[in-house]
Amino acid sequence: TSGRAPGTLGASMSAKKTPKQPSSSRDKETDADHDVSRALAYLLRGTKGPETRNARLEDARVDYFRGKDLYKVLRQRPEIVDEFYGKLTGNATTQLATGTPPTEAELAKQITQIGQEMLKRGYFVKCDRVYKTPRPGRTKKVKFPKFLAKEPRTSQFFTEDGEGFYAWTYAAPMSWTFVIIAVLVAFAVILMCLFPLSPIWFK
Question: pLDDT tier at 114 (50, 70, 90 boundaries)?
């Protein structure tokens, strides 16, 4: 009779048969990547981000920005590039790698890669103006067009020259300030509607 305790063999066999689950680790990495890109999208959609305007894209209203404005913002705030470039691309910035500030060309390349990663992960899409000629009576095209068309898939990349328009697909969550103001406005509307029914002494 074997001295092995009952159930030990079955437990060891079941342990051997337990399949590995590499997909869960990949899912965690994907979630972490999206957390980083979502944090950057939230930052860029706020007051620290590029100027945004509203336009019609196909059958929907969207907020969009110009690529050159994103370049301008990130050049003025290199700390954002230092914080997110390595997390998004897996590469260290020049300042972290060598201890020296990046050149204009290196910074522009890093910004381009950040924009490309955000576009690839679906936080915005590249668009173009519908009306490509100036309006009648004008010699220049408008700075921010009111109508946009989505670029074909083969043109969905963030250009190094900063040209083009990019429509946000990421909707920033509502802030507590907005929620509180909305509740106060709704309460005020209810009071105004009930005012004719209030007692005479209240009026």
Answer: very high
The pTM assigned to this predicted structure is 0.68
Q: Between vectors from CA 72 to CA 123 and to CA 114, what angle results, nearest 5°?
A: 35
User: Which pLDDT does position 160 carry in this prediction?
Assistant: 79
Largest CA distance in the chain: 102
**Residue 165, both tokens:** 């328009």
How far apart are alpha carbons 119 and 142 in whole angstroms? Answer: 25
The closest alpha carbon to 126, from 137, 134, 118, belongs to 118
Angstrom distance (rounded) from CA 8 to CA 24: 28
Left, alpha or beta for 162 (phi > 0: left; psi -120 to 50: alpha)? left
End-to-end CA distance of the chain: 97
| Three-class DSSP labels, 78-129 | HHHHHHHHHHHHCCCCHHHHHCCCCCHHHHHHHHHHHHHHHHHCCCEEEEEE
**Residue 16 confidence (pLDDT) above 70:** no
* Residue ranges with strand state E in the chain: 53-57, 60-66, 124-129, 147-150, 165-168
* 186: its two tokens: 């709704």
